[in-house]
Amino acid sequence: MSDHAHRHAHLWPGVPLALASAVLFGASAPFAKLLLGSVDPQALAGLLYLGAGVGLAAVHGSRSALRIEAPEAPLRRSDAPWLLAVVLFGGVAGPLLLMLGLARTSAASGSLLLNLEGLATMGIAWVVFRENVDRRLLLGAAAILAGAVALSWQGQGVHLDAGGGLIALACLAWGVDNNLTRKLSSADPVVIALTKGLVAGGANLAIALARGASLPPPGMIGFAAVVGFLGVGVSLVLFVFALRHLGSARTGAYFSLAPFIGAVVALVLLPEPVTPQLVVAALLMGVGLWLHLAERHDHEHSHEAMGHEHGHVHDEHHHHDHDGPVTEPHSHWHRHQPMRHKHVHYPDLHHRHGHG
Fold first, then answer.
1. What is the 3-state secondary structure (H, E, C) of 256-280?
2. Among residues 89, 336, 332, 49, which one has the least CA distance to residue 204?
3. Dihedral-angle region of residue 157 (phi above 0 means left; psi in -120 to 50 means alpha; beta otherwise)
4. Residue 228 confidence (pLDDT)
5. What per-residue confidence (pLDDT) applies to 156?
6. pLDDT tens digits along 90-118
7. Is 331 left (phi over 0), alpha (psi -120 to 50) or beta?
8. Spatial CA neighbour of 288 closest among 109, 104, 79, 144
9. Cα–Cα dist 55/291, whole Å
10. Which of 166, 167, 169, 226 has the fewest CB neighbours in a 10 Å radius?
11. How far apart are CA 53 and CA 48, in angstroms?
């Protein structure tokens, strides 16, 4: 492999998956904003997640009906506590807080504040789960935080309105969600996302209706379902795949592109001006994203013997035999023998080691 190819091989496929997830999610925020004037925020959160769940259930059902075997590991009973926590933090608390926040602030500002999700994800991954975060990533996080401060600047000191505070709480909930989802990332992302969508969407919609909220017209329900399927469902599937390859902190960092996409779409769709704060925030957050993208983590490391199940191909980390021919990628329980080597890597399923 040439030096250029070796330098960039570690970016594939995790980084494109994370960025694609960010594009879909970021674009969904201003579209959701269009519905908030006529739909209860919690009911909208429920419709978005139900759209994701129903859409992905249709995809999963079609896959089964066509006898297309997914090269992914199934969810196990031991995954149930993690899945429940993911649904509560990411599927119920997060979207509700986001919808309430977007209703109280501009779509462009709300979209840029969503960068805080990456910071929350990285902070929890670093402090709680001891995932390695180097100086470059920390500098990138500082640039993103500086962008968020610039966005909230009102000329009399740092000030976040109620909408911004609710969006910040949503980002914290999603930061917890992202780190817990990493525990499930070896299983089928479609099943994880559809379960989260159906349970969380159903819970949010039921609570909203119990409070007296009414359903919008069928056309709005359909629009919300499409936005939810793409911006929540497909985005979440891609995000879980990225977690598998990048770990929580780095996936959250790359996902920081989402607010830029949302801000651009909001400026086109909604009558919101381009303010100096918005420009400065965008520049600072862009620098932060570039610092994350330019990271290169390379050192000699050891792999301990382990066994697990996930979709894989036979590469340098998967040397095992099969009884008969197999197609790739495929999923089955397999064991890894101890080994020591050096290459560029992220804290993926096979590189969750400590650092001195």
1. HHHHHHHHHHHHHHCCCCCCHHHHH
2. 49
3. left
4. 94
5. 43
6. 888 888 888 788 778 776 667 667 768 77
7. beta
8. 144
9. 35
10. 226
11. 9
Alpha helices in the chain (DSSP H): 3-9, 14-36, 41-65, 80-86, 94-102, 107-113, 116-127, 135-152, 162-181, 189-210, 218-228, 235-246, 248-254, 258-269, 276-293
The string of DSSP letters for 234-247 reads: IHHHHHHHHHHHH-
Q: What stretch of H or E contains 335?
A: strand 330-336
Residue-wise pLDDT for 245-266, tens only, equals 888 777 877 777 776 777 777 7
Q: Which tokens is 103 given?
A: 């209703």
The pLDDT confidence band at residue 197, using thresholds 50, 70 and 90, is very high
DSSP 8-state assignment for residue 301? E
- Cα–Cα distances in Å, from 143 out to 115, 172, 229, 246, 260? 11, 18, 32, 21, 14
